[in-house]
Amino acid sequence: MSNEPIALDEALASFDALWSPRIVARVNDYDVRIAKVAGEHLWHVHDDTDEFFLVLDGELHIAMREPSGEHAVRLPKGAVFTIPRGTEHKPSAPAGATILMFEPSGTSTVGDRHDMVPDHIDATTGHALTDR
Amino acid sequence: MSNEPIALDEALASFDALWSPRIVARVNDYDVRIAKVAGEHLWHVHDDTDEFFLVLDGELHIAMREPSGEHAVRLPKGAVFTIPRGTEHKPSAPAGATILMFEPSGTSTVGDRHDMVPDHIDATTGHALTDR
């Protein structure tokens, strides 16, 4: 992991893949990941961890299935939100977004239980910023 | 902790204190904190945890004392950096900055070992966003 500061705009310019997070920093046994997203992700659950989102640009929607029913939150640029562990959720970004996430290293983008993974979704624990 | 998204600009508008982080989200046993900073913090060390910084606005400098000597990094807006555990460091922001931090809940702003805490520094594990 880099021992120099990383500019997020340069890091974002180094890849194009959607729903395919890059790890920009490590904090103890957690990763800081950034991703470009557009369209729909898939319903999935992280049984053992919360998942934090910060919207760097655009707008992220996150649908959630809770005991009280299905609902969604909208995160405009500059908004933060934590999905509690065990909550089935589906991120989407109709007009595209760039996001930053905090979660334990090794956390899969598709969680522990999920719908069939469509071709446009990268099931990964995050990629290195290899282009730097 | 809120179960609704929080807009960082609104959260930042809710307080004026410098070097006095507000907790905007929790992720497992970690906090996401935001702070307004200007001038100098103090030399301190977190013996048992890394500390992550994202600069939301302005420019943050972080001086570090390492075996190879003292040096500093500059983080402009949009830059990220992790201070490794055990590294003595002193943040400063000559022209002011707003920052986001990620660290274990209960981590003190002045670390486990530190210089005498000057009046303008808030020795805290983070405050709730009480004005919301």
Could you describe the 3D structure shown?
The structure is a homodimer of 132-residue chains. Helix content of chain A is 5%, strand content 52%. The first copy, chain A, has 132 residues and is mainly beta. Chain A has a single domain (8-107), classed as Jelly Rolls (Sandwich), CATH 2.60.120. In chain A, strands 2, 3, 5, 6, 7, 8, 9 and 11 form an 8-stranded mixed β-sheet that branches. In chain A, strand 2 and strand 3 form a beta hairpin. The first copy, chain A, is globular. Chain A binds chain B through residues 1, 4-9, 24-28, 30, 32, 49-52, 54, 73-76, 78-82, 85, 100, 102-104, and chain B through 1, 4-9, 24-28, 30, 32, 49-52, 54, 73-76, 78-82, 85, 100, 102-104. Strand 1 of chain A pairs antiparallel with strand 8 (79-83) of chain B, so a sheet runs across the interface.
What is shown here, in short?
2 copies of one chain form a homodimer. Helix content of chain A is 5%, strand content 52%. With 132 residues, chain A is mainly beta.
Mean pLDDT of chain A: 93
Q: How much helical structure, as a percent, in the residues of chain A?
A: under 10%
Largest interface: A-B, 33 and 33 residues
The name of the CATH topology of chain A is Jelly Rolls
- The CATH architecture designation of chain A is Sandwich
Shape, principal axes of CA atoms of chain A = globular
Number of helices of chain A: 1
Distance between the termini of chain A: 11 Å
Radius of gyration of chain A: 14 Å
Structural class of chain A: mainly beta
Beta-strand content bin of chain A: over 45%
Order of helices and strands of chain A: EHEEEEEEEEEE
Subunit arrangement of the protein: homodimer
Please provide the count of β strands of chain A: 11
